[in-house]
Amino acid sequence: FEMDFNTMGGMNAALELFGAVLTLVMLISCFWDGLHRSAVGKYLVLLLLAHALMLLVDAPIWLLLDRPAPESVPLVKVLSFFSDAFLHISLVLYAYCVTAYIAERKEVSACGAKVVAVLCAVALALCLLSAFNEMYIGYDKTGQDVTGPFYWLSQLLLLSMLVPTLRLIWKNRGALGARGMWTFLMYGLMPILALPLQIFWAVTPYYLLGATCAYVLVYTMLHLEQAQRTAEMEKQIISQQLTLSESQNALVLSQIQPHFL
After folding, report:
1. What mean pLDDT is predicted for residues 67-85?
2. pLDDT for the residue numbered 38
3. pLDDT at position 195, please?
4. In this predicted structure, what is the pLDDT of residue 206?
5. What is the pLDDT of residues 186-230, one digit of tens each?
6. How many CB atoms within 10 Å of residue 173?
7. What is the 3-state secondary structure (H, E, C) of the chain?
8. Cβ(153)–Cβ(126) under 8 Å?
């Protein structure tokens, strides 16, 4: 199919491709600055990878639907399923990422993340079912997509998957601090604010773009914390080296001075 980025679908595809590139840059940076070595960093790497794949899979859908054709419907369905799969997997990884971040500061249960994982399995099963009975998204004879009778259920499941993580963040706001709490909350709040806009103006992927912005905030916070820890470690090493040097100088002086007495 021809790629025309001057149409509404083309512009949306271009936005998602830009978001994917931005996400991949953050992913590479995680390895560059050593973030991937921590438990939180490992989840962040998987999260960014899932998000980038979701955007890369979702972008062609806009181009295909921009010029609907019956023969394109099977490909659109396959791409849509994988896009939804990566989206739901991202929600699970985010829950575990938040849990690991809190676990570095206090003891915390992973029950919330496990609930999200169970909801993810249910949502994916329904997405697969929808690919056959079109209960979420259907297609007319021309290949144009139409909203199915149970589309609201897919949105409800998405929101329900956010609730356990948001509850976990709010419950542990003391351990997270103001910056950590609001940074992690943005991941849930941005999509929640985007969903109503999606209902009234469904031609722009607000949800996915909101998630990308939230990842930028989370990555920036973790990167700054990593930089602060590195600076503190370097400061401690310099301090230890200075103390060792002073001790060695004192030892040398104590051995030299008796010869002059």
Report:
1. 91
2. 87
3. 64
4. 59
5. 887 776 676 666 655 555 555 667 788 888 888 888 888 877 777
6. 15
7. CCCCCCCHHHHHHHHHHHHHHHHHHHHHHHHHCCHHHCHHHHHHHHHHHHHHHHHHHHHHHHHHHHCCCHHHHHHHHHHHHHHHHHHHHHHHHHHHHHHHHHHCCCCCCCHHHHHHHHHHHHHHHHHHHHHHHCCCEEECCCCCEEECCCHHHHHHHHHHHHHHHHHHHHHCHHHHHHHHHHHHHHHHHHHHHHHHHHHHCCCCCHHHHHHHHHHHHHHHHHHHHHHHHHHHHHHHHHHHHHHHHHHHHHHHHHHHHHHHC
8. yes
Buried (b) or exposed (e) across 79-104, using 16+ Cβ within 10 A? bbbbbbbbbbbbbbbbbbbbbbbbbe
* Average pLDDT score over the chain: 84
pLDDT grade for 3, boundaries at 50, 70 and 90: low
Portion of the chain with pLDDT greater than 90, in percent: 39
What pLDDT score was predicted for residue 67? 84
Amino acid type, 222? L
CA proximity to 222, closest of 44, 23, 94: 44
Distance (Å, rounded) from C-alpha 96 to C-alpha 111? 10
C-alpha 91 chain-centroid distance: 8
What is the predicted pLDDT for the residue at 244?
77
Give CA–CA dist 194/65, Å, rounded. 21
The answer to whether 7 touches 66, Cβ cutoff 8 Å, is yes
164, 95 Cβ separation under 8 angstroms? yes
Look at the alpha carbons of 25, 220, 93, 133 in this order and tell me if their dihedral is positive or negative. Answer: negative
Instruction: Please identify which residue in the block is written with the tokens 């271009």.
Output: 14
Contact 205, 213 (CB under 8 A): no
